[in-house]
Amino acid sequence: MSREDQNADAEKGEERRGGSPQSVTRVIRLLEALCVSTEPVSLADLSRRLATPKSSLAALLRGLADEDFVTAAEGAWRLGPGAFGLGSALTEARRRLQSSDLVRAGMRRLCERSGETVLLAVGDHDGDQVTYVDLVESPNVVRYSVSIGDRRPFYATAGGRALLSTCSPAAVDVYLKRAALERLSPATVTHPAALVQIVDQVRERGYAQTVDQAAEGVTGSASVIRDASARVVGALVIAAPSGRAQGRLDELGQLVREEAAAISRSLGFR
């Protein structure tokens, strides 16, 4: 028996025992694969793209075809009218559920997971400072305190560095030449070459992190949120007292990156 047949038999066994969550996930991934393709896709291509046995995909496609979510086209598959109807309904539902509500829900989740204050930072029109436009405060008695509307420089904050990482290297250079790189604490990095290297690192790992940069005793971890059009909505920030953050910097970085990605998905970013 081939490995594909063995996998298919195992999946059938799961479904007979009460339904397979994996099948639900595969239906979603299958529809996403057809969404991004400009041409009908063969079963073999879908199998390769989704790393799923053809026999399993064939069963899913037949079920979707019965509901007009997909249509067979010369030995390949494309989206059917049912999928477009569902897409329109989802778009309308998303319009009713405001993006700010989705972001706020993610901020509350992150506050619960991290135990720290969570902020939403956006860049100003000049691209020199971030403004905190929303926050969920930590339940801890000792916590980072900030007010909505407070502004901080890009170069010295986790949120600002995360936003800078979405810019081209040339745009970052222009900003660093224009900005007044003042030392806000003994640890503040102000050398342009060092800041360029830091922003490059943020791009690679998907989140920014600062320790005692904008102020002594404050550690920030931030990652960017995007919407369905890939537009940057802002930076999601965990702000914590440095004493409590030490020893869990990697954890905080991973948490903010994961939650920013989850919020972005809820806003339609793929």
From TrEMBL:
<dbReference type="InterPro" id="IPR005471">
    <property type="entry name" value="Tscrpt_reg_IclR_N"/>
</dbReference>
<dbReference type="InterPro" id="IPR050707">
    <property type="entry name" value="HTH_MetabolicPath_Reg"/>
</dbReference>
<dbReference type="Pfam" id="PF09339">
    <property type="entry name" value="HTH_IclR"/>
</dbReference>
<feature type="domain" description="IclR-ED">
    <location>
        <begin position="82"/>
        <end position="269"/>
    </location>
</feature>
<dbReference type="InterPro" id="IPR014757">
    <property type="entry name" value="Tscrpt_reg_IclR_C"/>
</dbReference>
<dbReference type="GO" id="GO:0003677">
    <property type="term" value="F:DNA binding"/>
</dbReference>
<feature type="domain" description="HTH iclR-type">
    <location>
        <begin position="21"/>
        <end position="81"/>
    </location>
</feature>
<feature type="region of interest" description="Disordered">
    <location>
        <begin position="1"/>
        <end position="22"/>
    </location>
</feature>
<dbReference type="GO" id="GO:0045892">
    <property type="term" value="P:negative regulation of DNA-templated transcription"/>
</dbReference>
<protein>
    <submittedName>
        <fullName>Transcriptional regulator</fullName>
    </submittedName>
</protein>
<dbReference type="InterPro" id="IPR036388">
    <property type="entry name" value="WH-like_DNA-bd_sf"/>
</dbReference>
<feature type="compositionally biased region" description="Basic and acidic residues">
    <location>
        <begin position="1"/>
        <end position="18"/>
    </location>
</feature>
<keyword id="KW-0805">Transcription regulation</keyword>
<dbReference type="InterPro" id="IPR036390">
    <property type="entry name" value="WH_DNA-bd_sf"/>
</dbReference>
<dbReference type="GO" id="GO:0003700">
    <property type="term" value="F:DNA-binding transcription factor activity"/>
</dbReference>
<keyword id="KW-0804">Transcription</keyword>
<dbReference type="InterPro" id="IPR029016">
    <property type="entry name" value="GAF-like_dom_sf"/>
</dbReference>
<dbReference type="Pfam" id="PF01614">
    <property type="entry name" value="IclR_C"/>
</dbReference>
<keyword id="KW-0238">DNA-binding</keyword>
